[in-house]
Amino acid sequence: MVLKRFVMRGQMLLLVLLVAVALVRPVHGETIAIEQILSLCCQDGEEWGLQSRTCSSYNKSLELVPAGLHGLCLSTIEICCSKQHKIYQCTAGQIAARQGLSCSLKGDHSGSEFYTDCCEACKIGLVVGSSANKCSVEPFAFGSPWDEIYESCCNDIKKEGEIILLGGHDEQGLCDQFPTICSQVCENVEGGSYVCKCHPGFELLDDKKTCAPVSDDDNEAVEVKSCGKGFKLNRSTDKCEDVNECETGEATCNPATQVCRNTRGSFHCVDILLPDIACDAGYAPKNGQCEDVNECLEQLDACDREKEHCLNGRGNYSCLPKAVTMCQPGFAYNVSLGVCEDVDECEEDGACDEGYICVNIEGSYECIAVVKNYPNPPRKKVETCTPGFRRHNDQCVDIDECAADKNACDSNQMCTNEIGGFRCDCKIGFNLDTVTNACVDINECQVNAHECLETQRCDNTIGSYTCIRLQSCGTGYTLNAQTGNCDDDDECALGRHNCQPPFECFNTKGSFRCRQVSRYPVPITSLTTTTTTTTARPVYQPRPNAYPASRYSSYQPQLPPCGIGFERNSMGACVDIDECARRAICHRHQQCINTNGSYRCRDLLTCPVGYRGNENFTECLDIDECATGEAVCGPDQTCKNKKGGYVCVCPPGHMIGRNKRCEDIDECAMHGTKVCQQNSHCINTIGSYRCDCKEGFKNGPNEMICMDVDECKEIPGLCHQRCLNYWGSYRCGCHPGYRLSYNNRTCDDVDECEEYKSANLCVGICENTPGSYACRCPPGYKLGSDGRRCIDIDECQTENVCNGRHDICTNIGGSYRCTTIECPYGYQHDVDRRNHCERINRYCDVGDVECLRRPHSYSYNFLTIASNLLLPPVGRGLFSLTGPTSFQMIDFDLKLVSVDAAPHVRPVDIHYFRLEKQATVAQLNLLKSIEGPQDIELELSMQVFQNGELYGTNVFKLFLMISAYEY
Fold this sequence. Notes:
The chain is α+β, with helices and mostly antiparallel strands. It is built from 16 helices and 64 strands. Its main location: secreted.
């Protein structure tokens, strides 16, 4: 069909091309290059097709194309656009096959037949490639491009590695449908595929299905004990232990709405149901509080989406008129009225070629050929389109909801247009709430998805987070929020110093210094001469009465005095005075040590800080600063002496803070969740703290420990059917066949027949019952032992039917049929066999060939076959004949007598059957599945020869009744 369509379209294009060539005329002595025009038109068509637009709706201007070539260009555009659609659909079909999706494309799409054909060709290649067969199309062939697609998909799957792709099946995984597809472990993966894996100690072979033991250097198999899923091997005990998925993080429970419960070998998620909350109009309960309902997102508004935008508000919404500035193709904007009006293309000259009448329609126009004496039937118009499409040029084209409605998705989502609809995806930093179907902010700080340092605090923001420094920078520094570093404060520039003239401020790291503007003048020096040496020394003025004048016995008034601690000797030179030798100027527990120009006293007993010597200075004793009053403590502090010092102690629950004052310790902030359990809130108090139990918990004997409240026992009748208490709360459950209603308390019956109708719960008729369902069969069938299959009732054996003398009862699906056997002329009914007619006169004269060819008997056989019966490649046996072994030769023949098929059913022909002959046996095989309902009459004849002459003939009438029932 596709090739035929191509041939017809090629013939039309050739005709248009010939007409266009005839219209070409020289312009200014040059001939128009048709090839270039067609190339440009084809490029426009491909670009139009890349945008997934309908090829017949091309509406761009053809200013660069001569008027006589407009029709040729439009035909070229449509062909190139259609080619691009087919390439796109073919590629999409291959992708769908590799992902295990269906090859049936829903809706009306251009080139959809290529989607299906390419998808099926790829699926066949995937199946053949996964079975380790050769990727060759010989001896069959699909044709181009399907042969190339088949070989590509077949070869690709051989290179996929461990993952083996197959076509999509039912919701049931491939591993469940084909338990022996892998030799050891089979795991389903996304996209309808599966992967084969091996137990520890085994490795996957090249066929990606078979596992073989891993061998060591001595080629001996290494035996490794393996544990099943949900268990791990304890190498110390060599036993398989259960894995607590709730602690390891392997559980997939939603922490916001579910509680993880570990089970042996697995886990299960228990839903957290918050108590009912009464909210005002426009609000709905969520996470224990009332949150705004986005009426625009949930389409609960009453706005006209064609003319108005829906704007959500807190508890309400508003409808804003759309500012129409652009119109769809075929419409023009009326500024005065503010609306888009249809353009009458028929008013333009040359809208249709000669011989056609232009008819304006909304958004476009039609060219109807003028045929004399014959009415011009209008083209079939598309009255309505399915949701997600709009009518244009009598076709349904996709609506770009993202461009048409800026509020199609909320501010936390990104809008992506799709064929027949659109998709709202959450932006980065947001996650989809499965309950409200809205994008909510991800608390990166809560789920540990941030990159803050240990010295920083993570603060969540809408769509992101920020890192705040925990520790203060200290005095003299200020935190730089951009870099996170502590920058030095320039107290001199900020005016925070206390330096007074003649001192000036000099900044340092974390502080400042006051330094003098200029140092004191350098003392005046002069040269003095002594009897011992000549040296330049400064002239110092001696302190008055520093020493008595009598000590300077050799003092010479004509010489200047020596400095302090020096005196002139008899030679007039200044020499050091030994103060230790002249008098005892140190205490008795000290030793005098002379120095140049002075002396010093050294304690014979040196005590550390906080100690002092005894009266004899023989040992060091501790100083009690608290008793002596040397200690300096605050008014609310207690002084405690210690060896070598003292400490100021605050009351319990306090610590020394600023200005050496006692400040209360916030145990809740300092120790976090270590002071109270997770099921309680820590409340700080002056000097201590307390633990207040969260909702769902209460204090036990120990006021600091909170115990779970069993709401199911304390509140009778809390739930309709079942009440399940868990840590901190409870949830209501229902018996099998019921589900919780919107109030999370009462239980509603589940209509399994409607909800699971795609799963085919019953082969026959499904009837809903309270809490369950029941299967019922139509008349003529009975329910099987499994309670869901319908088994045909053989009325011929169970009921008194077909009571006629020569009636034959034949069971069919859901009923039966009575057939009266009427023997041909010259034959009579066999008293022993009701379906057998034998010849009255069995003897023939010698040489009477016509008498010998007449059948000895007619046998009538009836067989019922289901419609579209699955058959093996070699066919299925229906009927067999066995002749007598005493004759030299037996010949069998098959003839199709009659076929009576329903109007919508394809009738059979002789090629549906094949007669396999042997020496004395013949078998009738069915080669193709037969559609039903239809009745088929076949005639099998058996001729017996003896000594080269015909001895006799028997005819077997076979009536096949194909029912409409399918397996």
